[in-house]
Amino acid sequence: MAHQKKRRKATNPAIDRRVVELVKSTGISRALATQVALGRVELNDVLTRMSHKAEIESLMRRHELSRALASQVALGQADLESLLFKRRMAEHLALHSERSILVQAQLSAEPLSLALHGQRGVDGVVTKLDRYEFLFEPRGGEAETVHKLQVKFAVAADSRKKVRKSLSFDNELRKVPREPVWKPQDRYTCSNRRLFQLCDRQVAVEVLTLEGDVLRGKVAWVGRFEFGLEVKGGIEVVVFRHALAKLSEA
Known about the structure:
Elements: H1 13-26, H2 30-37, H3 43-63, H4 67-74, H5 80-96, H6 101-108, E1 112-116, E2 120-129, E3 133-138, E4 144-147, E5 151-156, H7 160-166, E6 168-169, H8 171-174, H9 192-201, E7 204-209, E8 213-222, E9 226-231, E10 235-240, E11 244-249
Antiparallel strand pairs: 1-2, 1-5, 2-3, 3-4, 5-10, 6-8, 7-8, 7-11, 8-9, 9-10
Helix pairs in contact: 1-2, 3-4, 5-9
């Protein structure tokens, strides 16, 4: 029995021309061009989907986003800058959250200069460190136990004189020595987000301590209890967050 040849479907020359034209002018596949030419889908819908797909792929590649997040950004359901900021902050805090100049000083045995409540300034080394207190041996003096809340800011001892030149004071707050604020809920509120935003933007800030010390510089890093402040001359002063009375853009 002779095999019958399959009949070829009749084609419409006008449709074929339209398909070729669409493929050439838009770059869409022949299958999609055929659907458009037959009126089964709208060309704008096809191009919109293609644009979104290309944007999603680009966002994933350039910013290392998941497909889900990239899709939300492409569709206008999420803000790219906000997502990237949150990621930068999370990475920064993961790196610096537990950073402490007291820990570093104990490990290195390098001398520190401490600004303490009572308007005291002492130079020495950290020899023992506990959760709330540390043993500090001043130059030419006897070792003393210092509560961490007594520390306002610290700097490497060999940079103390340079920092002192850039230090100014609020005269009203400077008149009377003040005790630390012992209850966390009563302290000046300065969130990680705000501190990191200042660090991320690298804007000049002014730091005011409870006893009226004024430091100006840029936030270099943000930790859970401390933050680095780069002052004039590129020197890093470590400010203890519990000692803040105010933090503002300079």
